Amino acid sequence: MTGVRLELPPKGVLKPNDAHDPLPYYYNPWVGWLYRHRLQMGLDMLPAGGTRVLEVGVGSGVLVPTLTRRYPEYTGIDLTLAPGLDALVAPGCNAEFLRADLLTEDLPANRYDAIVCFSVLAHIADSAGAARGLARVLAPGGTLVTGYPMVSPLMTRAFSLIGFQGIDDHHVSPPAKIAAALAGELAPLRRAAFPPAAPVVAALYQCTAWTKRA
Question: Is residue 36 part of a domain?
Answer without folding.
Answer: yes
